[in-house]
Structures are given as C-alpha cells and as structure tokens.
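FIELD: query
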Amino acid sequence: MKSQDIRAKFLDFFKSKQHEIVPSAPMVLKNDPTLMFTNAGMVPFKEFFLGNSTPKNGRVSDTQKCLRVSGKHNDLEEVGYDTYHHTMFEMLGNWSFGDYFKKEAIAWAWELLTEVYKVDKDILYVTVFEGDEKDGTKMDQEAYDIWKQYIAEDRILMGNKKDNFWEMGEQGPCGPCSEIHVDIRSAEEKAKIDGKSLVNEDHPQVVEIWNLVFMQYNRKADGSLVELPAKHIDTGMGFERLCMVLQGVQSNYDTDVFTPLIREIETITGTTYGKDEKIDIAIRVIADHVRAVAFAIADGQLPSNNGAGYVIRRILRRAIRYGFTFLNKKEPFIYKLVETLAHQMGGAFPEIRKQNTLVHNVIKEEETSFLRTLDQGLLLLDQVIATTNGKTVSGKRAFELYDTYGFPLDLTQLIAREKGYEINEEEFNAGMKAQKERSRAASASETGDWVVLLEDDVEEFIGYDILTTNVKLTRYRKVTTKKDGDQYQLVFNMTPFYPEGGGQVGDRGYVESPNGDIIYVLDTKKENNVIIHFTKNLPKNLNETFKAVVNKEHRRLAASNHSATHLLHQALRTILGDHVEQKGSLVSPDYLRFDFSHFSKVDSDQLEAVEEFVNARIRENLPLQEQRNIPMQQAIDEGAVALFGEKYGDSVRTIRFGQSMELCGGTHVQQTGDIWYFKIKSEGAVAAGIRRIEAITNVAVGDYFEDVERNYDAIKQLLKNPKDVAKSVSSLQDENTALKKQVEQLLKDKAKNMKGELKNQLQEVNGVQFLATKVDLDPNSIKNLLFELGGEINNLFVVFATAPSAEKAMLTCYISKELANEKGYDAGKVVRELGKLIHGGGGGQNFFATAGGKNPGGIPKALERAKDYIA
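FIELD: result
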C-alpha cells in the first residue's frame, strides 16, 4: 500500500466516524510564546484542551507536520543512527473535545489497524498505565477492561508514568495513555525472544505505533492532579512507522516516504545505500533533515542565528556536514532534493509546491555559505593542530570550532586522526555541558497556577473600538524568569489591549484602581487564545473594578506603521510583480520591517517608485474599510490577501484601504492620511529570494527629516557655506583623488629608494639571503617591494614589520618559491607563530603571508626570532 493511500485511508476512516478533517497547521508557531514548533499533533488544539475556546466540532482528525529536535529519543545528534526516529514526522491523529472517551478511542484504533489496514493481531501489543503512588493515581482499569475485548490479556502490558502518562508540559492537561506497539521481527527472532520483553526497550523492530491519550487531569504548579471538568481524547500515530509496518519493511527509510529521496541522493552523490554503515547514516540524515528544513521554510521560518531560525540552520548544517564528510560532497547539493520532495508530498501538503522555488534557493544559499564556513574552520583546525604540543589537541579548542563554525566532534576527530592527532574528548564534553547549563539557566522559568477570581468563558477583545474601559480581573498567575524577575500575568473579562500578533507588538498602558493606584501593563501577548497582560505588581484589591487604559501614542504609532505595511505590500506587488509575497513582518511604534519574496536587489528607482506609491495612497486619505467575522472563503473570493505562514480560522477580519485588502487582526489608522508620510530607511537581503525593507512613518519621519537637516547644515558649515553643496563635495572628492595619486607615487618612489638600501642589509645565513627589519611603508608598497626584490635575488627570506598606529602592527613574510618548495619553508607558518608576539595572527601562502596584531611593542622580538626559521 502506497504512503498516499495509507494517509487517505486514515482520514477517510475517521471521516466515517463523524470527525471533521482539518488541514495540517503550520509546523512553525508564530503566536505561541511557549513553543517554537508544532511538536505533537495536539498543539494546534491546545486552546480547546485548556478550555479557553470551544471547538465547532467535538471530533477532529488530521495529519499534522511535527518537528522534534530534543527530548526523549529525539536528540538531533542521534537522528540517522537508528531507522525509526526523525526530526520532522507526520502524526496521524483523532481528537475528541469532551465528546467520546476511552471506549470509542480504543475500539476505533483496533478497527482501523486490524480491519482496515489488515495488521495481523498477533504482532500487536498494548500498554496500560500501571498507576503512580507519588501522584496518587491508580492503574487504568477502565482501559484494561476495554482492551480485553479485543486482545489477549498476555498482550496487555503495564506501563509506568514515564511511558504511559502523557503531559502537555510541567503544568496543564494530562492523563494516562495506552500505547499500541508492533513487533515486525522475523519468526526466528520471535521464537528466541518474546516480543513483550522488548516493548519500550528501543528495539528497531518492536516500536510504538499509536498512542491513545486519555486526557482527564490537570497538573497544578505544586505537582498535584485534579480532574478535568471535560475529558478529552488525543491520539497520535507515527505515519512513517505505520508505512513501515504496512509496506512490510524493517526501516522507516525503506518505505516510499523516504526511498525517492534516498534514490536521488544516491544519484547526485554517486553512492549506494545499504553497503556501508557510515554512508547509510549520512544518507538517512540528509533524507530526514531536508524534509524538516524544507517544510519549515515553506511554513515561514527562514534559517537564522537565533530562536527557531537557529534550529533550522542547525538541522541543515548537520546534513551538510554528513554530506561533506561521508559522501565527499564539497559543493551544494541538498537543494536539488526539494523538487523530489515537492513532487512526493505536494498532494497532502500543497505549501511545499507553492513555495518550491523559495525553499530551493534558501537551502542552496545556506549550503554555499556553510561550505565556505567549513573551509574557514578547516584552516583554523590546521592552525590549532600546528600549534599543538604533543599529539592531543585541546578539547577546549575543538569545542570553539563546534561553537563558532558548527564543526561536530566527529568531523574534528576525523581530520585530526588523518594527521596523527587525537582530541581531548573530556575537555570538549565539559565545554558542551557548560554551554547547555548556561542555556538552561538563561531560559529557566517558574510559572504558578492560575488563581481564578471570576468564572468567565469568553475574554472579549474590544480594543478595535475603544482604548479605555472598566474591567474585572478574572484570573492571574505569577511567573519568574532570570531575564525579567518576578512578573504577573493578568487576564480580564474584557480588554482594550491588543496582544502581540501578526507582526504587531503588544499594547502597553496601565490599570487603575478606584483609589487611584496604578499598575503598569508592560506588554500584552496571546497564549492559547487567552490575552495576557504582563505587570510587575498585583493590584491590592483584586476584586475591584479597574480602569484599563491603553497607551494612546504607542497604539497610534503602531497602527500607523501597520497600515503603512499593507500599503507597502500593495506597492511591491504593483511595482515588482504579483510574485511578491509577505514572508514576515515587525510592526512597532518606532518602525516597520517587511520581508518579502523577490529574487534580485530592489534598485534605487524601484524603491523610489515604491515610496511614491505609498505616499500617493497616504495623500488620497483612503478610509479604513473593515469587515469583522466574515467567512474565510468569502474574504478570499473578495480579493483579500492571506499572509504567508499564518493560521486562520473559519471567520476572519479584513482590512481594506482602496485596492489594498488583506486578512489581518491588527490595529490600523482610520484613514491613510493619519500615517502622514512613509520613508524607506533600508533595503537588503535576508536570504536567497527574500528581501527586507525597513521604513518609518509619522513622528519618526519628522525626527528623520530634522536629523537630515542638522547633518546638512553641519556639512555646509564645514564647507564654508557654499551655494551649491553638491558641487563643493564633488570638487573635494576630485581633489582627494588627485592627492591619493600623489601619495601613491611618493610611496613608490620611497620604496624604490629603499630597495638599494635594503639589498645592502641582506645577510647570507645557511645559503639563504635573509633580512628582518622594520619599514615605514603601507601594505601595498611592502608587497610590491618584496616581489621586486624576489625577482632580482634568489634564495630570499624576508620579514618586514610596520606599525601604522600606536595600536596596530603588521608582519609580512616573503620566501623565494624555490626555498618554499624545495626546503619546506612556509611563510604562512612564520607569520602565524610570530603574529602571537604582536597579539594577532594571520596566514597566506607558503611564499607570501601577512599577520596583523594589536601590539607594536612586540615587533622587535618578532624580528629577532625570524632568524630562527633558517638557523
């Protein structure tokens, strides 16, 4: 059975059980401060489990793209070494939000596996929660009794809290679970060892295939459990593992989920899968990682140096390293797999087809960039080895290579071993451990339980219409982090505060008590459909009616920038073409940032046209036309632009200014004239095919023009107030060019005059014409002089030093090529080692190299030691 058919049968089955089939949510989470990625099928439905929203349908099913790069069995550095764990995977799931419970979940799981998929009952085992004394939970007798109706009791195994009690996090909804395991070993292996003894023992052919979670408790901050008012079902089945079982193979990578990618990798790299374990691991790593990276980019997350972007970059770099080391690929090639992936999975996930070109270009650029970094790292590793006493390289230096250049320990060890060295692993592991501890400490937080003051099902946002209103505090909790210290998160029955979302920052303001006490709202965010207000303090009387007041100026300027962002999007599509899509944005009161797809630099004429387009719409003073809670499809049919990587509900809000119409939940000006003026500050590349514009509006533009005028006046004064400033600057540039030419000629003359003098200073040492001295020349003149000397004198070995300033020193070494090639002299080694004396370093070729440093005081010693290299 093909993987596409397996997926379809799952969804059709649950559709027949009155489940609503919903599309996969983006793998990248933009508006959940607790997670970077969707790491389980239930993540898009967290708000329902927490009781913060009511779903339209109590039964839902889908296949959800998930990404896991840490945690149980999912350490990134382990993926590829076994055959059944992945970074990105599909989770087939069915959910009940207060509808059916254990009886139906178990019955349908058994029916689908054994009757629809025809899985042999004799290869299945199930686990049931055995209870936990510390939590005060008992064995899940209800699940056990239901399972007895379908499977022999000797195949129902007890599972501990680690394996059979699922929790959303340290706090929140949780409950016992039943796992379904499959034993696909051969008959001979089964005869030797009973399958039940291998369940949950990380055996590659005895694996968990489906987890049925019975969500019936809420975990409090103190660790205690209380019953949920409504009980839910959350199931997750690994699609790749299911394909392995139904396609009769022993590895996820032997299913048609991965074989097209593996065949393509073999073709591109000229390798064969299945003959060499190291090559096999590399191919599995690349096949797995390209899926994770491609879908993350398609869902809106570009590789970067922080946050979620860093995770994606790290995954891709791991794939590149394995190709570099084990498949001997020294040029980009992983990007070529995107076409195969889009063809294979585009039916189920159309975003990978739609974003095919973007994904292809971003991965190619990342590969090119990291391969350059690898080259730099290799040079640095050579230097580390060259300066190592003995045959053991410092693990601390090896960790620096890992931390700075992404060199994994195994690659460093491989290269060192080829040169006869080993790495001090203990020191490397100590560096790694210290880094992880710093990271954990930086992100450590304590979150208290919600203290409920007032039962309120719906927290209404009223901030589109008013900025001040009376509110009641419904719940609060205390949160402590290393960065912010103690803070409180407040939830009101209604709020005028806009929560961070859609690129727009959250509102600020204050909450006032009847007696005049004020609590400042530092930020506003949305978490699991709840609007949370961050404060440093709690009101004294929690049950009073408070006045909530949004900072009007903060909101006004943010709204100005948000509306300008919509007009900018329209301008770019009009001037550059319809291929332009928003790929990210930031809307703050100070400025706006807009990322968009475009495959070349936006030239100055185009930027001027974009700026003029937006300002023309501002001058037209177009009124805001807003539609709230209209059907999504109706909005799209009316021409609204849906933004890249955003998750929309059935009902949406549209914002229109003239011909600009977008789906948007943010705040906006009432008419475009309120923006006042739009000014682009910068345009540049973010990644391959992604450009970024930063711009300002309103007050910031006024400040900008005032600053420009001040600078202009200062320049005029420096130029003695000429009538034509541009002409005066041009004359100054011409004069400067002429003076530079004169200086260059003088330096050439000076070097020419010095040449004879320097020839007289040459000493013959062991058949070598040697000179080490300080000269007063610029780097270019030094280079020219050395090559002139080298053309006239054989067996030349010269070290020149110069000090351009009190804090700069430079060493230059020239060695005749016959000396370098025949006697093994190396100018690069000379400047690297002597460079330490001037507190610097450098390198180059064996016949010419330079080093720079910060200590001119070290020059005499460096020149003195230069002779040691030929003595």
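FIELD: remark
The CA atoms of residues 25 and 44 lie 7 Å apart.
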